[in-house]
Every structure is written in C-alpha cells, then in structure tokens.
Amino acid sequence: MRLWLCIALLSLALCASADRPAIVRAGHFVRDAAGGAWDMYRAYRDMRRANYRGADKYFHARGNYDAARRGPGGAWAARVISDARENWQSGVSGRGAEDTRADQEANRWGRSGGDPNRYRPAGLPRRY
C-alpha cells in the first residue's frame, strides 16, 4: 500500500506540466509503473520456474527491459524494484559484491533498451 501511495505522489510531482493536465500525465505514469511492476514480477516468476543455473542475469535484464519499454513509469518501477532487491539480497544471500554488481549491470542493460539475450545462457528453454 505504501508503494502505491509513493507511486501516486511521485507521479503527481513529476508529471506536472503546462502541455497536459497533471492528473492525466500522472495517470499514465502510474499505469506504466504498475505495468512495469508486473513485468518485473513475471520475469521473477519465470526465473523461479526455469530454475536454470546461470540464468538470473538474463531474467534481471529481461524484466527491466520489458518494464522500461512501457515508458517512464515502467523504467522508474524497474529501477526501484531492482535496487530494493539488490540492497536486500546483498545483505542476505551471501553471494558477495561481485554478484550484486553483475546483477546491477544486467538491470541497467535491460532498462537502457539493451537486448536481454546478451545474458541468455545456452540451453535455456525457448519459452523463456
């Protein structure tokens, strides 16, 4: 609930402009953010289902890529979710700073429009 409240308030603040009513722009931002959050969840769900060693970077890049394609709200949601996940995992997973840096690189690559298949491991089933 707090996340949605933050999204709504941030979207109102970011989207105020003279060319469109602020509420319309805010609505688009929120819609993109919600869709981006769904894209991130879908990539996470697929990663869990695939359970394929070495594929995590691909799914990080794919989730960020799909979310960012929705627009500024989707890119914002992808950045917030990715940063929160990496901050939490870096203290819990024990995989170390190198893995966190590699995950963040894949996140940035996807958000910037780079092809997620750059991180796709050989042998990963086509449905992913």
UniProtKB/TrEMBL annotation:
**Known Pfam families for this protein?**
SAA
Which intervals carry biased composition (Basic and acidic residues)? 96-108
Q: Which UniProt keywords apply?
A: Acute phase, HDL, Signal
Q: What does this protein do?
A: Major acute phase reactant. Apolipoprotein of the HDL complex.
Protein's UniProt name: Serum amyloid A protein
Return the similarity comment.
Answer: Belongs to the SAA family.
Chain intervals for the UniProt region annotation (Disordered): 88-128
One annotated Gene Ontology cellular component of this protein: high-density lipoprotein particle
Q: Which domain of life is it from?
A: Eukaryota
Biological processes, Gene Ontology terms: acute-phase response
Q: Where is the signal peptide?
A: 1-18
The source organism is: Malurus cyaneus samueli
Q: Which InterPro entries match?
A: Serum_amyloid_A, Synovial_Prolif_Regulator
